[in-house]
Amino acid sequence: MKLSDFLLNLVPFSDEELTDIIIHFKEEKFKKNAILLKNGTICDKLYFIKEGMSRSFYTRKDGKEVTQWFFGNGHFMASAESFFNQTPSFYNLEILEDSILYSISFKKMELLLAKYHNMEKCIRLLSIEMFTKLVHKMNATQFHSAKERYSYMILEYPNIVHRISLGHIASYLGMTQETLSRIRRNET
Amino acid sequence: MKLSDFLLNLVPFSDEELTDIIIHFKEEKFKKNAILLKNGTICDKLYFIKEGMSRSFYTRKDGKEVTQWFFGNGHFMASAESFFNQTPSFYNLEILEDSILYSISFKKMELLLAKYHNMEKCIRLLSIEMFTKLVHKMNATQFHSAKERYSYMILEYPNIVHRISLGHIASYLGMTQETLSRIRRNET
DNA sequence: TTTATTTTTTGATATAGGTCAAAAGAAAAC
DNA sequence: GTTTTCTTTTGACCTATATCAAAAAATAAA
């Protein structure tokens, strides 16, 4: 997925604007298991995923990791609250598959936001999209059985389900990996 | 809480901008138990709460209501995804205490967003704030015991806790009212 | 005040899903 | 190909919290 196509699809940037925006992004390649962000530090980069798969997660007191979100091709990735509020991140960012990313620093993003009305609109739309997705996850999660939560996952993210390890999916859905394993057994 | 103060606190609007923005809002008063929005309909209004308290909720298949969010003085209220995406709302909006609100329609909001770069910024910041709050709730909710969830509520929304009925709080925190009642008994 | 309605509390019981432990299977490293 | 490491599965057991039912308390209506 090309970054320019993604942006144009969201907001009708002029050629000039688009060029000036894209130029601020930097291509970066990462290998599986790379950590892009450690919790407690401020997220300074917003990434666009050209290719690959990542997740955000945190570690509980008992040492168990909890996945908060998966990020796939053609999507932006960051610890969004940390990036936009410039506060320490609750999450880590981890590369799950070798990836090609385009990154932009907070400073550069601020410049673009101030310079282009359209850029504000773009990020406004993205923020609302993130919010909407989170709302959907909450609805699918709260007051639903483990089985129902997994069904939601298959429906909403069918392609992710089979690229990601069972443990990561389980914690994303708020259950143990043993439970998810048992659910899968009783599926077709 | 005055709307103009709230807006100025977020973005440095000029006097001119601010006047033109405020003029599009309309004062409306509502009595306790009024329903501002029914699920399945598109949320056409964004409200600013000058005074009062409301909630968003949905009804489960078994007929039980689940509170999604509480909205208090000095905050915006809407079924946000429904309003900004103009899609049918999953939630109802209900007034919990007699209220004075300022409302703006989606059409007018669109105009302001297109007209003022600062307005885009304002809504972008609000969207990120909503997102951030939802993230916090998820973190406080997922993988935590009923007791821990209630502690989070007291910490995060100390003034709300004692204005709202037990049942509403319980469903907001993803537990039954019986459980919350038992938790409260064992406090102090 | 008295009655009706709604909300909260309490008790008894049931169960989904957690925890712990260990085996089996798959993937990575050597 | 063999060994090591990581991931998934399976079993036994346990606990937090749901459910159901009914009493008590609080609030609203008459």
SSE blueprint and pairings:
The structure is a homodimer of 188-residue chains.
Chain A: H1 3-10, H2 15-22, E1 26-30, E2 35-37, E3 45-59, E4 65-72, E5 76-77, H3 80-85, E6 92-105, H4 106-115, H5 117-141, H6 146-156, H7 158-161, H8 166-172, H9 177-185
Antiparallel strand pairs in A: 1-6, 2-6, 3-4, 3-5, 3-6
Chain A binds a DNA duplex (30 and 30 nucleotides) through helix 9.
| CATH superfamily placement of the domain at 3-115 in chain A | Jelly Rolls
How far apart the termini of chain A lie comes to 33 Å
Helix/sheet category of chain A: alpha+beta
Q: Please give the largest β-sheet of chain A.
A: 6 strands, antiparallel
CATH C-level class of the domain at 3-115 in chain A is Mainly Beta
What's the quaternary structure here? Answer: homodimer
Shape of chain A: globular
Order of helices and strands of chain A: HHEEEEEHEHHHHHH
Radius of gyration of chain A (CA) equals 17 Å
Most extensive chain-chain interface? A-B, 29 and 29 residues
Using DSSP, what is the number of strands of chain A?
A: 6
Helix content of chain A: 40-55%
The number of helical runs of chain A is 9
Let me know the average pLDDT of chain A. Answer: 94
Name the CATH architecture of the domain at 3-115 in chain A: Sandwich
The CATH topology label of the domain at 3-115 in chain A is Jelly Rolls
Task: List low-confidence stretches of chain A.
Answer: none
- The portion of residues forming beta strands of chain A comes to 25-35%
